[in-house]
Amino acid sequence: MNQDAWIHPSIDPIIFSIGPLDIRWYGLMYLLGFAFAYWFGNRRAERDSNWGKNEFSDLLFWGFIGVVVGGRLGYVSFYQFEYFIQNPLYLFDVKAGGMSFHGGLLGVMAACWWFTRKTGKTFLQIGDFVAPLVPVGLGLGRIGNFINGELWGRATDMPWGMVFAHGGNVARHPSQLYQALLEGLLLFVVLALYSRKPRPVGAVGGLFLIGYGISRFVVEFFREPDAHLGLLTFGLSMGQLLSLPMIAVGAALMVWAYKHKQRGGKA
């Protein structure tokens, strides 16, 4: 072990307990992410005559359901499918942890599709509105991973390498913080600046898919692959394989948006 390596502070994942109910840091990060989305979404709805506060509140509620249900289903399907086949009740074992961003994204997309039927807005219009709300929650979620000392990075000799309690006696990349910066802070800044001016419908959502996909693909080179999966096709991780279609779809969507130039509002 590098003697100069940082030691993960080993923070208790439970902030406090109320009877049998445990209040966890990771859950708090989720709540803070949705609180920010509520505040920022309402600010944007006030500037956009096509959106009302009640409409946005309904969308946020169904988006929350989509994140939780889709995130859990995605994790079980993408990362623990064989175990799930052997133990179907594992799907409901939420205390064991396990959420997938890509599954959560599919869940939010399903919620947006349902919302189109209720409001008459198009799927791309809703996607453009929602996209800038997401990165802050992603970044906070990664901070929650860091506090829990989970999803650590690969071994490194870099001076900021960190030894995690369950990661062996070796310094590792604090890849959770890399993801918090790229998928959270940087992606939020890019989308917030880009969406300040009216863009063609579909462009903001397309940029989100590209930005997240590239960020996740790059960080996965520093993140330790899931032990039960390892590296897969072409030496890529599951996270990278799931991010490639996002980048492709996002690029195609932006090309389509600028080709058709259907007028959109401020996202």
UniProtKB/TrEMBL annotation:
The chain crosses the membrane at residues 23-40, 60-79, 99-116, 123-143, 177-194, 201-219, 231-258. It is found in: Cell membrane. Pfam families: LGT. It is an enzyme of class 2 (transferase). Keywords: Cell membrane, Lipoprotein, Membrane, Transferase, Transmembrane, Transmembrane helix. One of its GO terms (molecular function) is phosphatidylglycerol-prolipoprotein diacylglyceryl transferase activity. Its EC number is 2.5.1.145. Belongs to the Lgt family. This is Phosphatidylglycerol--prolipoprotein diacylglyceryl transferase.
